[in-house]
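User: Design a sequence. Structure:
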């Protein structure tokens, strides 16, 4: 992947398109708090951070958002994706 930051608006749209039952506010909370998707082995820390700062967001939803966000990042890194 190049050094360009991921577009959070596109990431949110991708995540909500893949998981329409998620609450848009929860998706934006995770994206804005973290800024970039964490590596998979940091999920526990990310879930803990989000659920402590935003107890209204469930840990399960945070994990789903992180998985979809990483998928968006993977696709965004492909030369032919758009």
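Assistant: Done.
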């Amino acid at each position: 992947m190049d050094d360009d930051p991921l577009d959070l608006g596109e990431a949110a749209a991708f995540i909500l398109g893949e998981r329409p039952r998620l609450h848009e506010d929860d998706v934006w909370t995770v994206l804005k708090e973290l800024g970039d998707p964490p590596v998979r082995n940091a999920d526990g820390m990310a879930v803990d951070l989000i659920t402590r700062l935003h107890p209204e967001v469930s840990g399960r939803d945070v994990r789903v958002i992180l998985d979809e966000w990483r998928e968006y990042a993977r696709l965004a890194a492909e030369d032919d994706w758009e």
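The longest helix spans residues 59-77. The radius of gyration is 12 Å.
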